[in-house]
Amino acid sequence: MDIKRLITLALAYRISLHLERRVGQFVPAGVSLARVSKLERVPADGATHLIAAFDIGPTRTMQQDVEFGIIQIVDIALRAMSPAVNDPSTAISCVDQLSRIMIVWIGRMPPTSHYYAPPHVLRLFVPWISFDGLLDTAFEQIRHYAAADVAVSLRLMRAFNDIANATEHADLRVKLVERARRVAAGGAGHLPKEDVARLQRRLKTLEADVVVRS
Known about the structure:
It is a single chain. The protein has eight helices and four strands. It is of the alpha+beta class. It has two domains: about 50 residues, no CATH class; about 130 residues. Strands 2-1-4-3 form a four-stranded mixed beta sheet, with helices on one face. Strand 3 and strand 4 form a beta hairpin. The model has no long low-confidence stretch (mean pLDDT about 90).
C-alpha cells in the first residue's frame, strides 16, 4: 500500500478515503476496499489509479504486515504442541520470539491512522491492528492449546512479564495481567495442583510488579 500515493490522489480529487480493511486482510471480489467521501469528484480513470496504490495478490505477504509474520510463528507453535509432534521446546522458542516482537512493537510509535492535507482536512484513514489485537493474535491460540502443558504455560507467563517490564504504559500492563490470568485459569482445569501453584506464583509476581509501577 502506497500511503503517499493515496494521499496525493485524494488531494488531487478533493476527496477523503476511508480504507475498509487492514493491510494483509482478505478482500473478497465485490467487497469494498475503501470508501470515498465525494464519489462524483473521482474522474473516470480515478478508480484505476487508486487501486494501483494497493499491492493486491492471491496470497498474503509480510510487506507492511507484522500480523502475518506473527501468525506464521503461532502456526509453528501450534503444530509443535499437537499430539502428533509433541515438541514443547519448539513451542517455547516460538513464545520467546513472539515476546521479542511485541517488545519491539511497543517500543515504537504506533502507526498513524489519520492523514491530513492540508492540516485539519482528513484525506486518508488507514486501520491498523491494535496492541490488544496483536496480543490476541500472538498468544491466544497458544494459551488455549497450552492449557495442559505447564512448560509452555509458564513460558507464556514469563513472556507477559517481560513485555510488561518493557513498557511504561499502565494500560498495556493491565492488558498483559488480564491475559496472564487467563493462562492461570486455563491451567487450573487441566494441570496438577503443584503446577497450578507455579502458574499462580508467576501471576502474583506479575500483578505485584504492575501495582508497584502504576
